[in-house]
Fold each of these.
Amino acid sequence: MEKAPESLWLKSAPSRSFAPLGEDVSVDVCVIGGGIAGVTASLLLQQAGKRVALLEAGTIGNGVTGSTTAHVTEALDTRWFKLIESFGKAGAKLAAQAQRAAIERIALFVEQDRLDCDFRLLPGYFYSESGSGEIEKEFAAAKALGMQVSLVPAAPLPFATQKAVRFDNQAQFRP
């Protein structure tokens, strides 16, 4: 099995380590895992007045977070039209609102804490190289859920694509 190339984020990030707990601590919440989700949950809980311990077995940000493509998007792996079929429009709309809220919350963290993480808003695309049937269904579903989307002739990639759904105001950052 071929080893994946080392992540750009891991190559360029300064190494930080923290000492193990030296004694028992009393907290309201213990978060296990120091990736972006664990760090974010810990910060939000702390801001809500909770005493939090964040535990990580390895190095903060070196697991899934360190190997991420660092994009935050409303285009999910499960298509929106499938989510509407499974959970109804109201259920899918909750998921869509959560995706939008995540992008906006990250932008707020960056602004409030003046984080040097190359955060930027940019479009994201759902595309196909071979057909446009799912593209049009996904566009209609995303539009019905209130997302800022447009149907474009192709995604701006160095290879040919069919129609694409352009999701506006997606995000990218350096974790």
Amino acid sequence: MKIIAHGVDLVDFGRIEQMLSRHEQRFLERVFTATELADAGKVKNRIEKLAGRFASKEAVMKLIGTGWRDGIAWTDIEITNNAFGQPQVSLRGRVRQIADEKQIEQITLSITHTSNFAIASAVALQTSE
């Protein structure tokens, strides 16, 4: 297995709270998938969950290396948890195409929180050469 890219992002909970207070429905629908929103609705601290997902999407975009352009949508990246609580990344649409072009076969993700911040680290792996 070969590491081919890394991305990291830090999000202040206040930034998410501000977006929710200004543009709640538009922000939520633009950035998060229905599954991500359902997962955030099940936890005690919704802002923490949303901030972690937001940071994760930014970290994945950093490892892809394109930024939010060329037909890329926030919802092209979905962050869920497996049965053990480990975050998982699913790609679709334009982001999936770019990942395939870059021969990214797997993305591992780690998310952590403090009382005010969420940080995510994403690593792109290539299992074959």
